[in-house]
UniProtKB/TrEMBL annotation:
The lineage of its organism: Bacteria, Pseudomonadati, Pseudomonadota, Betaproteobacteria, Neisseriales. This is histidine kinase. The keyword NADP does not apply. Keywords: ATP-binding, Cell inner membrane, Cell membrane, Kinase, Membrane, Nucleotide-binding, Phosphoprotein, Transferase, Transmembrane, Transmembrane helix, Two-component regulatory system. It comes from the Bacteria. It catalyses: ATP + protein L-histidine = ADP + protein N-phospho-L-histidine. It is a multi-pass membrane protein. Gene3D superfamilies: 1.10.287.130, Histidine kinase-like ATPase, C-terminal domain. The chain crosses the membrane at residues 20-42, 212-233. The keyword DNA damage does not apply. GO terms for molecular function: kinase activity. Its EC number is 2.7.13.3. Residues 291-489 form the Histidine kinase domain. Its main location: membrane.
């Protein structure tokens, strides 16, 4: 919402206002950032390790393939099939070998940068170790339906004994490295083998689906425990808030239990001590002003009676004037306490209806008062708020002859303005209007019986509702009194002595 006419930055509007919400956001972001950064670092290290091992393995396989190609090229063509059959029966070789008259087309695995890098390393080794090759092809393929001969024979058609010691076909097939080289015109040697880590391409993707699921489960459990801990830590402060709100509204409340964390115990003790001091202060103040009513009025009356026995008329008149001033001050102080210390519970009230009744009463008395505004609901003490608005309306009608009342509202507050058409107030005198017994020349001339307490009482009542009272001169003449009240039951209430709860 707007603060001093400016909107808060977006990041402040996103952050929750409650302690529970802010701690939850910090815990959630902390866990997520830690998990994400940690797993990214771990995944990077795993990829680097797998890449290094795979490229080293490609270097060795390339050398072994070059040696095998030289060996088979050195044999007479008629002996090659015989040797291949013996190797298949005996087993124990790195490569599955077959001879063909043409290159066997295979469906290569695509989309794996690491597999492409290994193939490139093997190609480089073959170029370096056996440059006499006429042509060769290197690539990875899946064993399912993999052709091994130019006559259409696939890996699935071969006996298990021929491949079980060389290739992994069941139960979890692994990618097969196929090297085909033309050692002589019209003679192609077919070599198939596995990497030392047959599933190296899976290792290159450490954040696989199952890994991500495990990560999410871990993060979820940690966050759940964090939220439970945060809620356990902040729950006592919610009880503190409720107790403070109830005490601030004058409702009966019991002392907070002094148990829990060390910080909360200190806070609870401080609150209980403050509650006791405030309650004693209110009780002492009530007793004090009750005593004033009895102890001051009686001697004032006696002094007035004794003044009547004075022979000097001028002296008697001066005494009467001083005693009348003293009597007015005592009555004003008592009236101020009586008007601000209204014991009632706040409830939801229709502010527009309350104002309409006040305006209707003024109009029936022949006063010029108008009201404009739609339905507005506030959480307030009805009698106290009625007295505050009534004071301002009476002042506007008494000193300004005419009053216009307007009510508007926003998401956060209600604004009530009362404008009169009087002479206004000097700018330098506006701050002093709320002080007790302060009356300007226009006010004394219009109403000699006033005591200058109405605005102070009104502001105390408005402050007790968590609002504010502002005074300003209208550009076209007259004084404008503005009451700002928070909307909703969740807003703070304050006691009449100014303590915020």
């Amino acid at each position: 919402m707007a603060e001093n006419g400016r909107r808060r930055p977006w990041y402040l509007r996103v952050i929750p206002s409650s302690l529970l919400g802010r701690l939850t956001v910090v815990m959630v972001l902390g866990v997520l950032v830690t998990q994400v950064v940690g797993n990214l670092i771990w995944a990077s290290e795993v990829r680097q390790k797998v890449s290094t091992e795979a490229l080293d393995a490609g270097e060795h396989i390339g050398g072994s393939a070059a040696a095998a190609l030289r060996f088979f090229r050195s044999l007479p063509p008629n002996y090659r099939p015989i040797l291949i059959d013996q190797l298949r029966e005996m087993g124990g070789t790195r490569f599955f070998v077959s001879v063909n008259h043409n290159e066997v087309p295979i469906q290569r695995i695509k989309g794996s940068p690491l597999a492409d890098a290994v193939c490139a390393r093997i190609v480089a080794v073959l170029h370096r170790e056996y440059a006499k090759l006429l042509d060769f092809q290197v690539g990875f393929a899946w064993p399912d339906g993999l052709p091994v001969a130019d006559d259409g024979v696939t890996l699935d058609d071969l006996p298990d004994g021929w491949v079980q010691n060389t290739l992994v076909v069941k139960p979890r097939p692994a990618p097969i490295l196929v090297i085909q080289a033309e050692i002589e015109p019209g003679n192609w040697l077919y070599l198939a083998t596995l990497m030392p880590d047959p599933y190296f391409m899976e290792s290159d993707e450490p954040l696989a689906h199952d890994r991500i699921v495990l990560l999410l489960i871990t993060v979820g459990v940690v966050l759940l425990l964090s939220l439970l801990v945060v809620r356990w830590m902040t729950k006592p402060f919610a009880a503190l808030s409720k107790a403070a709100d109830a005490f601030g509204q004058g409702m009966p409340s019991v002392p907070l239990p002094e148990s829990g964390s060390r910080e909360y115990i200190k806070t609870a003790r401080a609150f209980n001590a403050m509650r006791e001091r405030t309650q004693r202060f209110l009780e002492d103040r009530e007793r004090l002003f009750t005593s004033i009513s009895h102890d001051l009025r009686t001697p004032i009356t006696r002094l007035k009676l004794r003044t009547e026995m004075l022979d000097d008329d001028q002296t008697r008149a001066e005494f009467h004037e001083d005693l009348d001033d003293l009597d007015v001050m005592v009555k004003g102080a008592l009236q101020s306490v009586k008007d601000t210390d209204i014991h009632e519970n706040p409830v939801q009230i229709r502010l527009d209806k309350l104002i309409e009744r006040l305006v209707d009463g003024a109009q029936m008395a022949g006063k010029d008062a108008t009201f404009a505004g739609g339905p507005v609901t506030v959480f307030a003490r009805p009698l106290a708020l009625k007295r505050a608005v009534g004071n301002l309306l009476d002042n506007a009608l008494f000193y300004g002859n005419r009053a216009e009342v307007l009510v508007t509202q926003t998401e956060e507050q209600v604004e009530l303005t009362i404008r009169d058409y009087g002479p206004g107030v000097p700018e330098e005198a506006l701050p002093s209007l709320f002080q007790p017994y302060v009356r300007l020349e226009h006010g004394r001339a219009s109403n000699s019986n006033g005591m200058g307490l109405g605005l102070g009482i009104t502001r105390n009542i408005v402050h007790a509702h968590g609002g504010d009272l502002l005074l300003a001169n209208h550009p076209r003449g007259g004084l404008v009194a503005t009451i700002l009240l928070p909307r909703g039951k969740h807003k703070a209430m304050v006691s009449v002595d100014g303590a915020v709860y």
